[in-house]
Amino acid sequence: MSGVSTNIQGFLASCESSHSSELGQYVTLDFPRLALWGLALCTPCLALPAWAHLGGDAATVEADRQMFHADLNSTAMQLYTRHDLRTESGVQLHEYQTPSGAVFAVSWHGPLPPDLSQLFGSYYQRFQAAAASTQVRPGMHRELSIAATDLVMHSVARTRAYQGFAYVPSLVPAGVAIRDLQ
Question: In terms of pTM, does the model score above 0.90?
């Protein structure tokens, strides 16, 4: 058995020594070119609109539809517009937008959890800080509630069943009942 491992180690050592100079030249010569290509390819991505999120605007809803490969239906209500997105995996997202264009609430339900960093946008760091200070009970049924002055969130998670909502109290239009959004 030790003869086999010696043979394998010898083989690997010979491969490294016979190609190390070629590999070293390839990596060092092409690294600057590779870095420039990477920068050139990533720069246009920086100019794309942000995804719809809490505090975002109307232009970002279409970007969400494309990113999630989702169907989009928008319904104008008296005090807000509700954008319903349904992903290919069955997750339903609802984004609630004020008449002035700000997304003041989001809700979700489906067999998979959504990307909360995307949905919460700049409020995600506040969510992380509040969630870190909250104790979560172990088990199959997970529930998290956060009630801060600038972010309110509630979520429930079970196997293949995730649902929740979040809103920014200062952005909620006067006359809108949060219980009606859930």
Answer: no
| Distance in angstroms (rounded) separating the CA atoms of residues 143 and 97 | 26
The pLDDT tens digits for 102-121 are: 999 999 999 998 888 888 98
User: First CA to last CA across the chain, in angstroms?
Assistant: 65
Q: Is 95 within 8 Å of 120 (Cβ atoms)?
A: no
Q: What span, in angstroms and rounded, lies between the C-alpha atoms of 99 and 58?
A: 10
Q: Is there a contact between 152 and 169 (Cβ–Cβ < 8 Å)? A: yes
Nearest to 67 by CA among 47, 97, 87: 87
Which tens digits make up the pLDDT trace of 62-91? 777 777 788 989 999 999 999 999 989 999
Amino acid at 170: S
* Domain residue ranges in the chain: 1-47, 60-180
Please report the pLDDT score of residue 172 as a whole number. 96
CA–CA dist 93, 132 (Å, integer): 24
Contacts of 48 (CB under 8 A, 6+ apart): 63
151-to-7, 61, 120 alpha-carbon distances in Å:
62, 20, 9
